Amino acid sequence: MYQILSDLQLIDSYLGLILVYCSTAVPYCAWLMKGYFDTIPFEIDEAGTGRRAEPIGTFARLILPLAKPGSRGRRVLQLSSPRSARSPSPRRSCSTTRSTHSPSGLQSFRQ
Question: What gap in Å lies between CA 76 and CA 27, rounded to an integer?
């Protein structure tokens, strides 16, 4: 990923930082929520369709309320992951002076 960001000249920029956080957070959160939705019994979905409810109505009225705890857990993990990367805040890591504020693994790639 560092090589791609370097080729696109996005090192030490807000856009590069946003891309890194999004490319790691979105797949993880999708996987986490998929696992949580798998724990919701299929019979609940069948009960909603048995009452002739629309699929989106069944999802909104029956499935989403049951998925709220998983969604809250996902939000907590998503908001805490950038802060646990041992890097300073995004405001301090993007500078025009090319300071060495980057995660410890990326410092070895700098020239």
Answer: 15
**87 near 103, Cβ under 8 Å?**
yes
Q: Residues 96-105: contacts with CB within 8 Å, 24+ apart?
A: 98/12, 102/12
Joined tokens for residue 33: 């929520």
**HEC readout, 15-30:** HHHHHHHHHHHHHHHH
Region of 23 on the Ramachandran plot (φ > 0 left; ψ -120 to 50 alpha; else beta): alpha
CB-based contacts of 53: which residues, under 8 Å, 6+ apart? 61
> Model-level pTM?
0.58
43-91, pLDDT tens digit by residue? Answer: 988 888 777 778 888 888 888 999 999 888 888 877 776 655 555 545 4
Q: With b meaning 16 or more CB within 10 Å and e meaning fewer, what string describes 64-87?
A: eeebeebeeebeeeeeeeeeeeeb
CA distances from 19 to 8, 30, 93, 109 (A): 12, 17, 14, 18
